[in-house]
Design goal:
Blueprint: H1 3-19, E1 38-41, H2 52-67, E2 72-77, H3 91-103, H4 108-123, H5 125-142, E3 145-150, E4 164-171, E5 196-203, H6 212-222, E6 227-230, H7 233-242, E7 248-249, H8 259-265, E8 274-279, H9 285-297, E9 301-306, E10 322-325, H10 330-339, E11 342-345, H11 348-356, E12 361-363, H12 370-377, H13 401-426, H14 430-445, E13 448-454, E14 463-465, E15 473-476, E16 482-485, E17 490-492, E18 504-506, E19 511-519, E20 524-527, E21 533-536, E22 566-573, E23 592-594, E24 600-601, E25 607-609, E26 619-623, E27 629-632, E28 638-645, E29 651-654, E30 664-670, E31 675-678, E32 683-684, E33 688-692, E34 697-700, E35 705-706, E36 711-713, E37 735-737, E38 742-743, E39 748-749, E40 754-755, E41 760-761, E42 766-767, E43 775-778, E44 783-787, H15 837-848
Parallel strand pairs: 1-2, 1-4, 2-3, 4-5, 5-6, 6-7, 8-9, 8-11, 9-10, 11-12, 13-22, 25-27, 26-28, 27-29, 28-30, 29-31, 30-33, 31-34, 32-35, 33-36, 34-37, 35-38, 36-39, 37-40, 38-41, 39-42, 41-43
Antiparallel strand pairs: 13-16, 13-17, 14-18, 15-16, 19-20, 19-22, 20-21, 23-26, 24-25, 43-44
């Protein structure tokens, strides 16, 4: 879906046909004035703790822009610190962090904190899944994102195509380990060069003042902005004093709107007469303790919410009626604040929404100046308590008169800032853009980085590092490869560094040159023959034919990127140019890894047929045999795709994604001469395992919905034999799943099964026999428990209680509202794979029955 079609879909859903037109009319009084393409970047959906505010403040900002005639798109951006975090099931990662803390003998407080977090994720696994589902649903329904997922590395080589970029609020300018800053949040990647750059309500959170080196880097980034605004007054003063920028003080985006916008979203909870406790981890003990005292004093129910995964909460006092919920979404969170008798919080946005709803609220301690700055801004300092304060002395009401005046003034000031900045961006000249690009070029040529020399395919003991007078530092890697570096040697990125003569000496091969890879933030890139660079892993096997080979004495070329953490020259030897560095996970010579989805073909006849934009996030395609084909339509929405072709002549086809779905998430295993075909608009909540073996096929029809941990396999992957006859009892058999089928969580489908269109397979069910159309099947083995059913995709998150008939207009496809027919074959309309004659015949025979 393009930016414009995505925008139109969103606007029609939220504004209705009467208030919407494709030119951007939000209200009858609003006319779109701007053709400038605006990209927004912030933390939003990659907040590891599923913080309620991250999506709400970007939603508020996008709404504000739209009301003033500006269309915008949010970059689907993964922060540099996100790593391989598993958003849905983070327990295992948290456990590993706890074990690392023990192994590294961290302080007791750190060990206790990590143990508590690991235990929390483990006990609240289902609640975490429900919470994430609600967050994803909110984003799909209310926010406009780019189709491609970016990070600070990919933004060095890929241009999202916007004219103006705005980094939007919250803790985006904090320091982070290893990287110092997230360059994406500071608009420091190459894609932003020459474009208008605006910062709105940036914050450093609880981070303190910068070191001299950090400040020098921060100043380089900030001074390239066209307009800067800060959310907290102390940080605004710091930026003003230490850079060439004079930033404005503005409101958080959620405060740009009155409560009307939030009333439309908020869902009223069942609970009444309660104290709401909403806290974040830092120094939350006093907030929790005072909230309990207050609830007991006023005989109120106690509702506990947090961004931390505590299934049963942290309150253990038996004398208070206690309700702990971790599985709430944004709409419910707003509803809990709006309906509370009183709110206790140490959260910045807890304070924001308490004020917007004009609630009685009290504030505990919190690291940093975010909360104190907020309270000072609105004359609400008295709402923050000390641990020794008596709850009997707490105020029974808040006079919001002064706060309303300050809020109105803040809205005017903030509105003036962003609208003026956007107006200036529209008038930005070509000369100004060229000057910004020239500054960026000068910066890039001044970069320096360390250089390492790697033995490549040659392993110890067949290769050694020669002894010289000025001995380099060398080491043997786990893969038995060798690596050395010259003490104190750094490379300036101006194309002048001459590669010294190789010190590697091998017994059975001759040195032929070097290939060059370098790391920006988290990804490795390879320098190619045409002078371009491309992301890959440490081996870059799919780039072998395109890698540049540099001789001893050649200069290392200028690398056209805004950061280089380190570079590695990889030795090449006769007998196989570019066999890779070999110290990564891809060491088997018979296996080829492809981690960027694009058109591909290798010497063994394996190929990828895909004509869409390259996709490099969560892609892992392995070819172990020959003449395998992966065919993927365009457009396609991929959340995560792993495909392993273990034999020869395997085939996979994946049809297009034309509707908003959770995205394709599959682990595909394709054995010898087997095939998998996946229809259009299929979505999976988490990676579904699909395995085709023994020449059998798996067909998944259009519009199917797979819940988490679904498994589909044509056989058990190990043979079982009859001890008398010696014949195999479990041969691989075809699987056909019709269109618009819903497979529930942990469902399994075995070989030889056909599932009719429109059917539902229940939780932990194992399908071993055919299931007709439009039924509910459940159990192990699964059996039909109800006939003549139909299901629709819209969730019930906002459905009024007691609504027991399908809401008007929600029948997405009348063709799946059918009576059950035992002999009804599934409706399948997938493209046939070229060359798979046997599969075509098998499907034909089935349809002819």
């Amino acid at each position: 879906m393009t930016h414009n079609s995505c925008r139109d879909h969103w606007a029609k859903r939220h504004l209705g046909n009467n208030l919407y037109n494709p030119l951007g009319r939000r209200y009858n009084t609003h006319i779109e004035r701007c053709q400038m393409k605006i990209g927004l970047i912030g933390i939003n959906k990659y907040a590891k703790f599923l913080n309620f505010a991250c999506d709400l403040h970007i939603y508020a900002f996008q709404q504000f822009l739209k009301q003033h005639g500006y269309e915008s798109t949010i970059l689907d951006y993964k922060p540099a610190y996100y790593g391989n975090f598993d958003m849905r099931h983070p327990a295992e990662g948290a456990k590993q962090q706890y074990l690392d803390a023990l192994r590294n003998k961290k302080d007791p407080a750190t060990i206790r904190k990590r143990a508590e977090l690991a235990l929390g994720y483990w006990t609240a696994e289902e609640e975490r899944e429900r919470r994430l589902d609600k967050f994803e649903h909110f984003a799909q329904e209310n926010l406009i994102f780019t189709e491609e997922v970016y990070d600070s590395d990919l933004l060095e080589t890929r241009d999202p195509g916007f004219d103006c970029y705005i980094c939007v609020t919250d803790v985006i300018w904090q320091t982070i380990p290893r990287h110092t800053f997230d360059r994406g949040f500071l608009l420091g990647s190459k894609a932003f060069d020459g474009k208008a750059k605006i910062a709105y309500a940036a914050s450093r959170g609880a981070s303190g003042d910068l070191t001299d080196d950090q400040l020098a880097l921060f100043k380089q980034y900030v001074d390239r902005f066209d307009a800067v605004s800060i959310r907290e007054d102390d940080f605004r003063s710091y930026v003003d004093d230490n850079t060439n920028t004079s930033p404005e003080l503005v409101l958080d985006p959620v405060l740009l709107h009155d409560r009307t916008l939030w009333d439309e979203l908020a869902v009223t909870p069942r609970e009444q007469g309660y104290v709401l406790l909403y806290y974040v981890m830092e120094q939350s003990k006093d907030t929790i303790a005072k909230a309990v005292e207050y609830a007991k004093l006023h005989n109120l129910t106690f509702v506990e919410l947090s961004d931390r995964p505590f299934k049963y909460g942290k309150v253990t006092d038996p004398d208070v009626k206690h309700i702990a919920r971790y599985d709430v979404g944004m709409e419910e969170w707003l509803g809990y604040i709006r309906s509370a008798d009183a709110v206790f919080t140490n959260s910045f946005h807890g304070c924001c929404f308490s004020m917007l709803f004009e609630k009685l609220f009290f504030v505990g301690s919190r690291n940093g100046q975010k909360v104190p700055s907020f309270l000072r801004s609105f004359g609400l300092e008295e709402q923050q308590f000390d641990m020794d304060d008596d709850v009997r002395d707490f105020a029974s009401a808040i006079d919001y008169t002064s706060a309303r005046t300050a809020l109105d003034q803040g809205r005017q000031r903030s509105s003036n800032f962003i609208l003026t900045a956007l107006s200036e961006a529209e008038r930005r000249t070509q000369e100004e853009s060229e000057q910004d690009i020239e500054r960026a070029n000068l910066y890039r040529y001044g970069l320096t980085y360390p250089i390492l020399f790697h033995s490549g395919a040659a392993q110890s003991p067949s290769v050694i590092v020669q002894t010289t007078e000025n001995m380099p530092r060398s080491k043997q890697l786990d893969s038995n490869r060798l690596e050395y570096t010259w003490r104190g040697t750094t490379v300036q990125n101006d194309g002048s560094f001459q590669i010294p003569k190789s010190l590697f000496q091998a017994k059975d091969r001759n040195f032929t040159g070097w290939t060059l890879r370098f790391r920006i933030d988290n990804r490795w890139f390879w320098y190619l023959e045409d002078g371009s660079v491309e992301a890959s892993d440490v081996n870059g096997k799919e780039l072998e034919a395109r890698k540049a080979v540099l001789e001893d004495g050649a200069v290392i070329p200028h690398l056209p990127v805004n950061r280089i953490a380190a570079a590695v020259l990889v030795a090449q030897w006769d007998g196989g140019k570019g066999l890779g560095s070999g110290d990564g996970p891809d060491q088997a010579k018979s296996r080829t890894h492809v981690r960027v989805l694009k058109r591909y073909k290798d010497q063994k006849g394996n190929r990828i047929e895909y004509d869409g934009p390259p996709i490099s996030t969560n892609i892992d395609i392995q070819f172990q045999g020959s003449n395998n084909v992966l065919r993927i339509a365009n457009p396609v929405m991929i959340g995560s795709l792993s495909a392993i072709f273990t034999g020869n002549e395997g085939f996979v086809s994946i049809a297009e994604t034309t509707k908003k779905r959770t995205g394709l998430r599959f682990d595909l295993v394709i054995r010898e001469k087997s095939s998998i075909r996946i229809g259009a608009n299929v979505g999976a909540e988490t990676k579904a395992l699909v395995r085709a073996s023994g020449g059998a096929s798996v067909i998944i029809g259009n519009d199917c919905m797979l819940a988490s941990n679904v498994e589909i396999a044509t056989d058990e992957d190990h043979a079982i034999y009859d001890t008398v006859t010696g014949s195999r009892t479990n041969p691989a058999r075809d699987i056909t799943i019709g269109e618009h089928v819903w497979l529930g969580k942990h469902a399994a489908v075995s070989g030889g099964v056909t599932i009719g269109s429109g059917s539902i397979v229940g939780f932990r069910s194992i399908v071993t026999k055919d299931i007709p159309n439009n039924v509910v099947a459940a159990g192990a083995p699964a059996r039909v428990v109800r006939e003549n059913v139909a299901w629709e995709r819209p969730t019930l998150a906002k459905t009024e209680p007691g609504t027991n008939t399908v809401p008007s207009g929600q029948r997405a496809n009348e063709s799946f509202w059918n009576p059950t027919m035992d002999d009804e074959p599934p409706v399948i309309s997938l493209p046939r794979p070229n060359g798979l004659v046997r599969a075509r015949r098998r499907i034909g025979r089935f349809l002819a029955k």
